[in-house]
Specification:
There is one protein chain. Helices cover about 35% and strands about 20% of the residues. The protein is α/β, with parallel strands linked by helices and about 325 residues long. The strands form two sheets. A ten-stranded mixed beta sheet has the order 5-4-1-8-9-10-11-12-13-14, with helices on both faces. α8 runs antiparallel to α9. The protein is globular. Bound molecules: 1-O-phosphono-beta-D-fructofuranose.
Length: about 325
């Protein structure tokens, strides 16, 4: 089973425009949709859609309207009751799939909420293969939150503790890499560049792999899956580095593509896949997500069958 933690879920509102976004103008939209979003929730939705066991842990008020799309997604959850509704994030996409995303800071959690959330993750992690810690941290949550959760889970379950995957950015990523010993991180090229402090060229996968190997893997993190948008993705482990290009697709919305890539990687991992299989699955799920509107996540039926070649770097 895979467990995900989303400390900062979001009701994702997507508005589709028939033309590029024109700041300062009035534009008529062609459609809109709402999805239960937040990075860990998106990962869990992909895993549930693939009929693989998953539990999503999140803070959620009893009367939050977010429950409607969340329940429709069919994801088993452990909701920690909190006082206020989740944030609503906005995405504006145009006919070419160009996406403008506006994210709110999220609901501040009390010290009791944080303790209850941590306890819920520790309990849910019993017997799990992976624990996914994903997304930004709401205001007032310490940058060390993911480090604290990783320590609590490992202290409780010891050798039986799940492997820990982290998808976050900024100070929370810095902390978890330095002190959380994650088994996997999934930055995109921008997040990795911010982390290393050096510009990265998504068209140069060998350069990306070299930057990861120089700074992160395997010194602090066992593996890194670096998503490079339409260029593809790079996987770096202690045993090697691989690149897979992304298939050409018609992009509808890039929101959730990285989360779907991570879910694809984990699905292949729990199925016993080799590094090349995991990377290929990450690419297929990420591309399928980008071809779907809003934060809609792919099921196995949505995956393309293009021939893709994973190459060793
Ligand atoms: O504020 P965070 O957690 O960094 O990002 C939140 C978010 O943009 O991430 C998901 C896509 O990856 C969306 O469902 C959600 O709105």
């Amino acid at each position: 089973m895979i467990v995900t933690l989303t400390a900062n879920p979001a009701l994702d509102r997507t508005i589709t425009l028939p033309a590029p976004l024109a700041p300062g103008e009035v534009q008529a939209a062609t459609s809109s949709r709402e999805d239960a979003g937040g990075k860990g929730i998106n990962v869990a939705r992909v895993i549930a859609a693939a009929s693989s066991p998953v539990v999503a842990v999140l803070p959620l008020a009893d009367d939050d309207p977010y429950r409607v799309p969340l329940e429709a997604a069919g994801v088993p959850t452990r909701a920690v009751p909190v006082a206020r509704p989740v944030r609503a994030n906005l995405a504006l996409t145009d006919q070419d799939g160009v996406t403008t995303k506006i994210n709110l800071p999220g609901v501040a959690l009390s010290a009791d909420d944080v303790a209850a959330l941590t306890d819920a993750v520790v309990a849910a992690s019993e017997g799990a293969t992976w624990l996914v810690l994903a997304g930004s941290l709401p205001d007032a949550l310490a940058d060390t939150f993911y480090v604290d959760v990783a320590r609590a889970v490992r202290a409780r379950w010891g050798a039986q503790a799940p492997k820990i995957a982290v998808d976050t950015s900024g100070p929370a990523l810095r902390q978890v890499v330095a002190h959380g010993a994650p088994d996997l991180i999934k930055p995109n090229d921008d997040e990795l560049a911010e982390f290393t402090g050096a510009a990265l060229d998504p068209a140069d996968p060998a350069g990306v792999a070299e930057a990861v190997a120089r700074t992160i893997v395997p010194a602090q993190v066992a593996s890194a899956l670096v998503t490079l948008g339409s260029a593809g993705a790079v996987l770096v482990t202690a045993n090697g580095a691989w690149f897979c290009p992304a298939p050409r697709i018609r992009v509808a919305s890039t929101v959730g593509a990285g989360d779907s890539s991570l879910a694809g990687y984990l699905l292949a991992d729990v199925a016993g896949g080799a590094p090349e299989d995991r990377l290929l699955s990450a690419i297929r799920y990420g591309a399928a997500a980008a071809s779907l509107p809003g934060t809609q996540v792919p099921s196995p039926a949505d995956l393309g069958g293009e021939s893709l070649t994973v190459r060793s770097l």
